[in-house]
Design goal:
Number of strands: 5
Number of helices: 2
Largest sheet: 5 strands, mixed
Strand content: 35-45%
Structural class: alpha+beta
Shape: elongated
Length: about 150
């Protein structure tokens, strides 16, 4: 299996270990929010988005890669009423914190990476209410032998 694939699998496996709030779904495949029941939230989707590569100049054997993952957390308000009690912002904040903390536990992605870190966090504008979305950009720096991705 490739280093890229090992890193992606490690991210998913780690996120499946979140306990509070415990995600019901952690997947690398896109989902249709309308297909989810209330009981299937929170849900997390991990997708590889961009990668930049460079050669190591000293040996010309190794390459460096920097993969960007988009990790999207979906939460659902306890109430669909648009009142101060719907707690959607609290739930978004909780899933952001849980994902960020879990990813920090192993920045080497099970020894497949040199470093990994969150670079950005965004939330939705509320148009999907009672669903809330948090989008985390996660970057992984890794090294691999040329020709062995």
């Amino acid at each position: 299996m490739s280093v890229r694939e090992n890193i992606a699998l490690d991210i998913v496996q780690d996120l499946q270990g979140i306990t509070n709030p415990a995600p019901v779904i952690v997947s690398r495949n896109p989902i249709k929010l309308t297909d989810l029941s209330i009981a299937q939230f929170p849900a997390i989707i991990v997708q590889t988005t961009n990668e930049q590569r460079t050669d190591e100049t000293s040996t010309n054997t190794f390459r460096f890669g920097q993969i960007e993952y988009t990790i999207t957390g979906y939460v659902r308000a306890d109430s669909s009423a648009t009142t101060v009690n719907n707690n959607i912002d609290t739930q978004r904040n909780n899933i952001i914190e849980a994902i960020s903390e879990k990813l920090e536990e192993d920045r080497t992605r099970n020894s497949n990476a040199m470093n990994s870190y969150v670079t950005a966090v965004q939330t939705d504008d509320g148009t999907q209410f009672p669903i809330g979305t948090a989008v985390i950009t996660f970057v992984v720096d890794y090294k691999y032998t040329r020709g062995t991705l």
